């Protein structure tokens, strides 16, 4: 027996029609590219077959293979080049899962002071691979009910809790760990679109002084300095791609002039745009 009344199921009000959220099963051919740019959802990639080379913000040419998991936070800027025919399941989600998205991860970070974040894959353990095998069948059959997506996400985080160490979870979810997941989520979602700290505070529904206090408690530096550093990471990622011109970067990040962009790169990246790009090319080669 094949799919179970797919047409009737897809007409249900609980059918997941929003392509931005939920689980997706993706097949990608060698030489194709996958792009995630400034998204407002968090993403977890489960590589089932094949391999890809990914660029994520300032991290360049990191290779991920079958049997690995990768997490991307909100506002990630990522391009993946498919090295060999690839099959993967991708979860895009916004609302945090209760088990590992809240204070538990913060506690894990405090209790794992030796962990230092690096953009690398986390192994898919056998129990999680069994979970993914059944989920893959659901997705291939078109069983796309919102309740199944919600249940499978809760099950996923239970599996993370029971089968992964604190160090593994902290390394995987490090970019989103903080004192307040909800506050950090708003920051990660909006920091590229705001022009001033005052605008940022307004978006988050705080007075500017209260926003500054919360921000300092969460990120241990001022909103302005933090935003500039995050912006620099995105710009470095753009400089990695030789097909993107300096003029395009200047326009995308709203610099008033090429000289303004030059000064920014000198201050936050340690060199001129051309020098940074050449250093990246030399390092890659």
What does this entry look like structurally?
With 285 residues, the protein is α+β, with helices and mostly antiparallel strands. 46% of the residues lie in helices and 20% in strands. The chain has helices at 6-10, 103-110, 126-140, 146-163, 166-173, 181-190, 197-203, 208-219, 223-240, 246-252, 258-268, 273-284; strands at 22-28, 33-37, 42-56, 59-65, 68-72, 77-93, 122-123. Strands 1, 2, 3, 4, 5, 6 and 7 form a seven-stranded antiparallel β-sheet that branches.
User: Helices and strands: which structural class?
Assistant: alpha+beta
- First-residue to last-residue Cα separation: 53 Å
Computed CA radius of gyration, to the nearest angstrom: 20 Å
Percentage beta strand = 15-25%
Number of strands: 7
Tell me the helix content: 40-55%
Number of helices: 12
Instruction: Please state the oligomeric state of the protein chains shown.
Output: single chain
**H-E string:** HEEEEEEHEHHHHHHHHHH
C-alpha geometry: globular
Main sheet overview: 7 strands, antiparallel
Unreliable segments of 5+ consecutive residues:
1-17
**How much is the average pLDDT?**
82
Question: Main traits of this protein?
Answer:
single chain; 285 residues; alpha+beta; seven-stranded antiparallel beta sheet; 12 helices; 7 strands; globular
């Amino acid at each position: 027996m094949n799919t179970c009344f797919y047409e009737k199921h897809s007409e249900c009000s609980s059918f997941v029609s929003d392509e931005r959220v939920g689980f997706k099963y993706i097949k990608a051919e060698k030489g194709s590219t996958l792009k995630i740019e400034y998204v407002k959802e968090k993403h977890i990639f489960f590589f089932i077959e094949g391999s890809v080379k990914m660029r994520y913000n300032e991290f360049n040419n990191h290779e991920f293979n079958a049997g690995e998991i990768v997490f991307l936070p909100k506002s990630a800027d990522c391009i993946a080049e498919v090295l060999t025919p690839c099959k993967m399941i991708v979860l895009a989600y916004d609302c945090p899962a209760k088990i590992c998205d809240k204070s538990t991860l913060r506690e894990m970070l405090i209790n794992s002071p030796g962990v230092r974040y690096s953009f690398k894959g986390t192994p898919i353990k056998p129990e999680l691979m069994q979970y993914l095998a059944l989920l893959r069948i659901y997705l291939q059959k078109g069983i796309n009910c919102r309740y199944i997506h919600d249940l499978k996400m809760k099950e996923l985080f239970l599996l993370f809790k029971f089968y992964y160490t604190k160090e593994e979870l902290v390394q995987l979810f490090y970019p989103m760990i903080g004192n307040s997941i909800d506050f950090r989520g708003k920051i990660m979602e909006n920091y590229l679109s705001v022009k001033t700290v005052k605008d940022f505070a307004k978006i988050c529904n705080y007075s500017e002084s209260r926003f500054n206090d919360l921000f300092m408690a969460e990120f241990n530096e001022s909103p302005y300095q933090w935003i500039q550093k995050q912006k620099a990471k995105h710009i470095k990622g753009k400089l990695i791609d030789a097909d993107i011109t300096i003029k395009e970067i200047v326009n995308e990040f709203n610099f008033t002039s090429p000289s303004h962009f030059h000064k920014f790169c000198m201050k936050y990246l340690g060199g001129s745009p051309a020098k940074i790009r050449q250093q990246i090319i030399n390092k890659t080669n």
